[in-house]
C-alpha cells in the first residue's frame, strides 16, 4: 500500500496512486475572471474553467469543499445544475453552459455525472481534460445500470426509494431517491452524521430511465482523463471503477472513501483536478 501526502501535509491517502495531484485550486464565477489569482500564485498562462457536474442523489453543494480549495489558486469554477433526466439531454444542458464560458474547460463528473461529461465533452475542442470522481466512464452502448452490475458489490438497489411520477409529456415514470435512514451508510459513510442527514434531506432524485439510457459517445476516447477511485464505495463497486478507468487509460488515484468522496476528501479531489488543469496549460 502506498500513501501520498498533499501539499498541506494534512492528508494521508490510502491506496495505490498511479498519479499524485499536486495542489489545491480556487473559485471564481467565470473564465473572464481567471486572471484574479491570489497574490503569489504561479501563473503559467490563463487557467481553464473547472466545470463540476454532480451526480444522482446530490446537488451542487456536494462540491462546496472542492470549490473552497479550488478558489485558493484562483481557478474559475462553475458547479453546474444537473437535471438528472438522461445522459443525452443532461449533456445538452451542460454543453449550453460550456458555450457561455470563455476559454478552455476541464470537465469534472461525480457518479452519474461521469456519463454526462463523457457525452458533453465529445468532439468539443473547448474541453481540454476530463476528471471522473467515483464516476461512470461508459462506452457507447453501455448504461450506468449495466456498468454498476458488471461486478458484484453495489448495495444501492436495496437502499432505493422509487417514486412513481407523471412526466411532462404525460407518460409514467419513476424517480429514484435513497431512503433517508439508509443514506449515510449507502452514500456517505465517511461524512459526519449531521452533514449526511442534511445531504439525505436535500438529495435530488434521478429518473430511473437515465440509468437505463445507452451512451452514444465517449469523450474519454479523445481527451486526457483522470479518475478518483473510491475503494469503500457501495454505489459503484471499486472493481467497476477500475475497469472503466483502465479501459480509458485514465490517470488514477485510489482512496479509501465512500461514494461521497468530494465531501469527505475535498482536498484530494481538488488536487486531482489541479493536476488535470495544469496539464492543459
UniProtKB/TrEMBL annotation:
Top-level taxon of origin: Bacteria
Signal peptide feature range: 1-36
Coiled coil feature spans: none
Keyword Signal listed: yes
One Gene Ontology molecular-function label: catalytic activity
AB hydrolase-1 domain boundaries: 50-272
Pfam families to which the protein is assigned, alphabetical: Abhydrolase_6 (PF12697)
Keywords from the UniProt entry: Signal
Cross-referenced InterPro entries: AB_hydrolase_1, AB_hydrolase_fold, Sec-Metab_Biosynth_Hydrolase, TAT_signal
KW Ion transport (keyword) present: no
PANTHER family: AB HYDROLASE-1 DOMAIN-CONTAINING PROTEIN-RELATED (PTHR37017), ESTERASE_LIPASE_THIOESTERASE DOMAIN-CONTAINING PROTEIN (PTHR37017:SF11)
Protein name: Pimeloyl-ACP methyl ester carboxylesterase
